Amino acid sequence: MIARINYGAESIRIFNLFIFDEFHIFSAPQIAGVINTMLLINCTNHHKKFLFLSATPDIEFIDKLKIAGFRCQEINPLDKHKYHFPNNQQQEQELQNQNWRQVSRRVRLNLISLEPSFKASETWIKENSNLILEYFQRNPGSKGAIILNSIAAVKRLVPFFQKIFEAHGLTVGENTGLSGKLTKEKSLLADLVFGTSTIDVGVDFKINLLIFESSDAGNFIQRLGRLGRHDGYEKDGEKIKFEEYTTYALVPNFLVERLFLGDNPPLENTGNYDRAFLNTTIKEKYRQINDFRGYYQRWGAVQSFYLFHKLSDRTIQQQYAQSREKFQKACENVFGTSLKSIAGRVSGWAKDWKTTSGKSGNPIAEDASSFRGASSLQCGLYDLTEENEADRFKTYDLPGILGNLEIEMWTEAGFMRTLKETAQRTGQPIPKGKYEHCLGFMKLRSYREERLNWKFVYPGDLQGIADVWKIQVLTGIEVWQPDNNYVREINKRLKKQGLVCYVLRHPIAEVRNRLRLPMHFQLYPISDELSLHDNSAPYAIAFGQSALLLDTLAYRFKSKGDEIWIA
What we know:
By secondary structure, the chain is α/β, with parallel strands linked by helices. The protein contains 21 helices and 20 strands.
């Protein structure tokens, strides 16, 4: 059966259960959006159920739902003694006879200590390609996944391993956020898959070898949990059984030191540990990243105000009069602020933007009220490395392009014309709405072997801008990358953009370290006209929702003397 699903009010009416999978990867703006949506559904008399699937439940999120009056039930098998960890085959067989289902097999975990630097994981994988190949030769029928944090690293490693593996009758696939549908489907048939996500790994793609890097404790636990789920797989009607399960976790050296060194290390080199103990230990010893809990009160209620304003529209005002008042009260209780004060802030941002640009609109409010968040640095990309024509049309953020891609500038007209022609020729619909607000359009020719340095620049003095410690909308920002022959075309558009941003008077590495920012937090170096030729940019800048997140940590700095970092 094929059904067409309409999102929005109609979907809320039709469906009674809403499932949020992999909820632990949601950031604070997304979680605030989920809370606001649930409050709106509840206050408009739609009684629905919500199921959140997560490797690491968010206690603060649960508390907020309870404040709003939701009845919450946490399903934690460990607390209910619904997990058993047999020490031998006899115990395992006894549990199976009692109808216990095995959800994970015994895994050999190898922790590889690496310097926390760019390309460390990629270099280790290349240098140990023979080790990986030997695993497949020693264990015929094996399936393996290598999960990395960088799409560019995956794109470089896939052809490198294809050349090695194909000589031995083995296949290598790719599954990343930039992979087309056909490429992803083919990857499920490969022997070894490189990816940046665990969407298919351990589910449709059953594995007994896993190599992965992680960015934090939750990410480590979630990725490790993809191994050991299955006894094997079927191929051409034949059952292929896995004989052993092996993983190599590529982790920063400080984690290995905390786990194995010191007076009372929690782990031993040859120890046997159950998953519950290992997960708890990893959570305690891994680097703790910031959870941005200040975001909900400071920015979550801006989205509430946006929805409240929508309920005040004259076409539905009378119908939702009681719901509007109920929604307002619920939001104020959950986020700990009044929508009246939010209205004042929103009005102030609009006036500031009008004074600065002479234009109407409210860029800060638009970013804060957005459910998904839209990047003002997003570019349309025609990927010539993609095999399937219909999958070549993609979006990619400018910073990633500047550092990792070999591209050729293109016109919007040329991009959209090719999109239309490809859709007609292939008979496959290609969505075009996401390209409406792209900064530029390009052809992707290849991925660089070495990452290029670059930075943002501001045509003035950033000192006064950084000293106000608040979200601002700036124009005139450009890219500085002297060896780039297309950067001039980018800057023509970029400098005209009104960019919602937050600027800090500290180098990017210091900000990341002291504020415990996640690995993929979008923070970039920026110089002004006084520091353009400095070896390293003395300022750091974040845009859009990343700027709002940064504001929740940095807005209480002292303006004089020693800074107080709130983390």
